[in-house]
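Record type: monomer structure entry
Structure origin: computed from sequence
Chain ID: A
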Amino acid sequence: MKIAYFDCQFGAAGDMLNAALLAAGCDEAAWKAELAKVKIEEGSFQLLVTDVMRCNVVAKKLDVLDESGTKFDRLYEQAVGGGHGRHEHRDHPRAHGHQDHQHEHGHRDHPSEHGHHDHAHEHELHDHGHDHGHDHGHREHAHEHGRNEVHSRRLPDILNLIEQSGLRSGARSLATRIFIRLAEAESRVHGVRPEEIQFHEVGAVDSMVDIIGFSIAYDLLGIQKSFGSAVPLGSGLVRTEHGLFPIPGPATLYLLEASGAAIAESVIGFECLTPTGAAILCEVVSEWGRQPAMQQIEGVGYGAGTKDPLQWPNVCRAVVGTAVDTVSSTKPSQRFSAETLAVVEANLDDFNPQALAFVMEKLFEAGALDVSVAPVVMKKGRAGHLLTAICKPGDRVLIQEMILEQTSSIGVRWHAAERLVAGREWQDVQLAHGSVRIKIARDNHGEIVNTQPEFDDCARYAEDNQVPIKEVLVDALATFKRNASST
């Protein structure tokens, strides 16, 4: 299994995470070609990926520019008439409900300056006297800041843009989930429905590049599971039109709350984690904490923010490699193919056993490859059942949700498992009064390793001809072997 570890000890933003994957081995030409499929702007935009130094460490820096070479975060600043420097948290898509909260207009200083992160990260010291600079991503609040009227996009518009693109399905699905997660957090902040969240047309461009670009890189690298370090949030206050505002912003906290992310202590006096960075991490990271074991490291990349402090490298790091497990760490089989599956389990001690058969059928309908129930003894000596479903990784969430919906379980666990698979085919054999199918399993060299009559066919034959099913099973297998030997 291809896994990734996002080491964000100094924070993270969308552009930094995106750049980290590019530095970790994602093919830049392929990445740009995929991103070009999304009609983000009616006018064209340019992508600038450069190597920069952060505390003497080489890192990649991602910037989004218009045709003239002006960064989009600068265009946003011009559009809203901001005069405090670049509060650039390039990420805050500025989702503020449809109410045009003119929130920061002019003060785009929302907590940030994470120097890096989407927030444009250059955060020069603003007039406020703090270096936050970040426009809290609410870059959309600008709606009509009085100077230049700026159009906005609602969440459904962005999702439709992604859906209508020619992106690979993995990237399309991931980008959609991240935007929905971000909009749900912003909807809690502004008291509106997620679909009413608006993203400022100019300010959203670089955020869309960050989110969609990250999803493309993640998909191109073939990452199947991600881990993340505990993340610092930063600290301090920023003055806005509505008064002093604490760091981190509320959307970031709502995102972390919903995902159970681990928070690291930090003495950094400005915003370290932007909403876009939080939305990305909370969507892809399944386990927070230490670096996971890897059989082999395949790529390491550093993504830089704009700010360049002397005391620490303003970067986040991505480590991509192969997970260690008892199967894949051995020599690959030459006879059989290997595939990774998800094993989903739940212990049930307060569920009517009569309903288990119904649940099993529902799980098969949802895409489970196999479902089993085993008796177990649970806490306090209570008799219970272990419900296990095996499925393709892409069906795992649906299977988990169905178990939670259809049973009394309030927690469903899963783990990845690798199996060796024989090729399979069907062959009809003619018996005295009709035919039944034989399932044939072969290795990669075409050698037969197993044969088995299809039970449903044999049961139907036995019923129609009033013969014992055990005789049908024996007769079917013997007939197949005779036919095979004669050829």
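Annotation 1: The first strand starts at residue 2 and ends at 7.
Annotation 2: The first helix runs from residue 14 to 23.
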